[in-house]
Amino acid sequence: MRKHKIVINYFSSNFKLGVLGGGQLGKMLLTETQKFDIYTVILDSAADAPCSQICNEFHIGNLMDFDTVYNFGKKVDLLTIEIEHVNIDALFKLEEEGLEVYPQPSVLQTIQHKGRQKDFFVENNIPTSPHKRFTSKEELLKETFNYPFVWKSAQFGYDGTGVKIVKNENDLNSLNDTDCIIEDLIPFKNELAVIVARNKKGDIKTYPVVEMEFHPEANQVEYVICPARIEDSVAKKAREIALKVAESFEHIGLLAVEMFQTENDEIIINEVAPRTHNSGHYSIEASYTSQFEQHVRSILNLPLGATESKAAGIMVNLVGEEGFSGKVVYENMEEILSMDGVTPHIYGKKETRPFRKMGHVTIVNDNLDEARKIAQKVKNTIRVISNSKRN
Amino acid sequence: MRKHKIVINYFSSNFKLGVLGGGQLGKMLLTETQKFDIYTVILDSAADAPCSQICNEFHIGNLMDFDTVYNFGKKVDLLTIEIEHVNIDALFKLEEEGLEVYPQPSVLQTIQHKGRQKDFFVENNIPTSPHKRFTSKEELLKETFNYPFVWKSAQFGYDGTGVKIVKNENDLNSLNDTDCIIEDLIPFKNELAVIVARNKKGDIKTYPVVEMEFHPEANQVEYVICPARIEDSVAKKAREIALKVAESFEHIGLLAVEMFQTENDEIIINEVAPRTHNSGHYSIEASYTSQFEQHVRSILNLPLGATESKAAGIMVNLVGEEGFSGKVVYENMEEILSMDGVTPHIYGKKETRPFRKMGHVTIVNDNLDEARKIAQKVKNTIRVISNSKRN
Question: For chain A, which terminal residue's Cβ has fewer other Cβ atoms within 10 angstroms, N or C?
Fold first, then answer.
């Protein structure tokens, strides 16, 4: 019976790790499975996904399709994800039939739906802003609102899509007719994140708190900074709450916990992602154990690695510049490579589009202020454009 | 004309980097070309070479065969090596026809042959132990010897094969009949190494000096330690001499310079390797720029990265244990993964043999003494064996 199979050797063995999704998170995971020589099989819908040429086996198929995910799962010894929008029913069936699936399908199911996710926080006494759930726009419009408030589509939001600040009655018109939640808009000092790793034995570790620094006018995250420039007592609280979230889920794998530091120095959870996360990319260069290696360790029930940093780390996303679409060109790469401690990661998407995530750059330095200065120079120097057309 | 082709964009572009050799050095190079999304094409004679499944294109062929190497070179935009035993005539022809080949064929030709390499040192006033060249055993035996001395096969030595300490007349019998050199045996305090990176613009950087720590009885390198536990003045001299060697060659790419610290604190060159090197593996975790990324930067004429360390690093080779051959098992991996700052690299060779290089483990720590203690625990814990047979 597969359920009782004990895999004792993952390294240069016949063990097959399956991954749903072959994007940049999968690609950075492959660096680690290659390092450990763990045979890795990937499913993605795009033939030219970043992982396609560098894994042991690459399968093309729709991650939301039951049969595709189920049949893929039958080919592997353990299944994980790099994106949470996958067919959960197939995962439940695979788990029932004895396959190890991490994060667990039940956790994915809760997290995939922002209403269920928020209810989970409330049930488990995890601080979060007050919310209400609605199944349609019609139902929503019966509500009496305190403006401004936050509206979120319950499902399939990604990188800020499906989230709106509703300031007045007029703004209501622009909302989609869909399963949704609304939340109080809580003023905050800082947006923070903590990555938690937990394995099947229950070993659990948090990474240091990172801080998102926003552009003062554009209100866009410009830098992810580790360690966050906050008081130790606040950092301690943030790590404790992140631990509590992962423990409450009995989560196996990596969990990225996004939170707000309120004006009263309270920590409230914004949302969680059950996987490696943009806010942990700095760890590849800055931490003793990168988040991607840690994810591998967690799901394979190996001892967790040290989460401390070797140096301060700052991450800048490389997104496609507005006004450019087509074959990507990274302008001024030489200039940023000439700055100390600067490492670009190019995800391998051949076409740029406005705001498309094309890569990221990590800046590491003994000194956080120095890293911050270099990060700004990086940000002002590199451009993700296209020579072929301007739109 | 190809010679004047200016490649302005290596990242997610049509540019093709060719690599001769697909072993572990190639595999660790691929981590970097994947990170930068540089299309990489590899040639190796073994279908199951460590690089075979994780590069953009993998070609099977004999690296010593003129046509194979020449035809491979015609498919790529720039050619490099991860092993120096390749067909040099093909490289010369490719270079003549305008292909950029780094390290340069002329440098490879000199280094490939230990007699020419030693002559080069002498001609360029680079300190090395006195030597003599012989084209055959017959010619060698006409010599009057001062025992003990060092005998080296002029070509194809690797990891100590082709090197012998000749203590007396009897030992002469065991020497092969081949092109060879003999050297004075110079007593030394320390065996050191320095990696130098140099690009086409002539930018040049050295990594810190590393030290090989030998087993007190077995006379085998047990640990590569960075930084070397030597006086600053000695380290400075070692880096200066390494710089001089790379400058003398006008080398492009990475050059690993192995040297001895004599009992009088002189530095003399032992030999050089025109590529990434075992003595630089610690840099993946410990340095701001890993030697593999630095090699990519050097050959593509990009700015060189910082060579400083984020933390102290120690490297332990994982070699097949005596008495075991067959399907490899890494015993006690969990135990070493539970030690802080420990990263195993598994090269992906499926079969172990006594003394075969199967991987390495890096230990990083803020404190070098602490790293050294953990390294010893690692060394005493992990075993590279086989369950299938004992020979």
Answer: N
